[in-house]
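Quick board copy: two proteins, each given as sequence then tokens.
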Amino acid sequence: MKRLTIISLFLFGLLLMNSCKNSSKNEEKQYAKLVKVATVNEMSSIGQKQFPSVVEETEEVNLSFRVAGPIEKIYVKEGDYVEKGQIVAKMDSRDYEIQVKAAQAQVDQLRSEYKRVAELNKRKSVADNDYEKMKAGKEMAEAKLKNAEDQLTDTKLKAPFSGYITKVNFEEGELVNHGTGIASMVDVSLLKVEINVPASLYVNRDSIVRFECTQEDIPNVVFPLTLYGNNIKANNSGLYKLYLYYSPTTGSQLAPGMNVSVSVVYSTTNQGQVSIPVTAIYTKDNEDYVWILNTDSTVAQRKVVVGSKVCDACINVIDGLETGEQVVVGGLNLLKPGERVRIVKPKSPTNVGDLL
């Protein structure tokens, strides 16, 4: 009986030791450190250069009549916005109306005579030569009528495009010759911006990501620009001209004559370089290290060579990492080589408060 009791106590001790060992392993697994990780990405570097420029209107023209005479009415004043085809000024048209009536009467007469001669020519009663002379006379009269009608139409000066009147040079009643500038107007449906860039940027213009500009008197606003052409020949300073334009939106404050700073944003190639969050780097003995997450959920310390910051939160790594590897971010000084960790899962937008 005593022997049986000793054996029972021995077996109970073994079970207790095994239970404590398993409990210790479970506790170690349960209390593995929680870490956040980030994936090592190939670095795409973005560069930016600034160039001064001045905003210009797309087009500025002097409006003038194609005929001469006294101005009967001016419908606009400086600063007015006019639509394409809108009447800007009108000339006294009495003389041109008379010319049209006279030309119309001559055409009507010749058309009637031509019709009669054409019929006689068919019957061989009129020679072909006389018929051709009559036909030419009728066509000349019709051309004169068309010219008189065009001159009558030209007594109305219309806007060739939509834009703003910048200057009015004459008043009503003044006599003007054809071609004399009555008013000036600008087209601001598009605004031009020109910059001169060095050859290094010109030859790599395919790597340009975007153009934009800012104006110091319009804070916190960035105006997108579009490239529409370039000069293939450098100027005396060895610079190449790029032609940009801006499409104004409703309420846009950018206007012709404003000084702007143009930003040219371009991408650069950095073969073999990657980027990671700044919080993944820690320093030890004046050397930079990261914690690599292994496939067995353990961490390993690795020395890296870092470069410059890509942005406020990221930094590029010149050597020591490969694209696709995972590094620990945060709590780096609390880890040990070979230590097992658990990854903190990112919060799901459908699991608010981690309730699921």
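And the next:
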Amino acid sequence: MSKTVLLKIIEHNNWANGLVFDACHALNNEQLDFQPNSAVRGTIRETLTHIAHSQEDYATMLTRSTHPPERSGQLALSEIRTLLNASGDRLVAFVKACSDEQFQTQNNLDDGYTVDYWVFIVQLINHATEHREQIKNILTALGIEPPRIDGWQFAKEQNALILPSV
């Protein structure tokens, strides 16, 4: 059961990333680079790039036990989508291939860090959720209705939550 739940959590993360990306794909450069006068730090373009790089980093640490080097610079929207899809697919494949016991062990990274496998998943989900909310706030500031990416909506689309008939 725990593996199934973990897989759904990763699938929700991939789904939510895709919906937020799709909401931003049609934006013009001015909107992508809009810096709101609020507590949100960074533009949509910067934040999407950061989410994509970070997810790729977590997937790399989980699957190859290497700590990727720091990256800088912005990605084109097509590169962001490609990176999100590829790293999301790697995360799903990793969870499917992992045993429950592996998630209770430690991963010795090549840079000397030792991290329990579950920590990567917690950080992946928490990190992406925070940044997707930042993007949704910027979309709202631009007068654009952000996508609904909560667990209830995901469950409805997965036929895991069926509304009562009236």
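Board note added afterward: Residues 63 and 85 are 16 Å apart (CA to CA).
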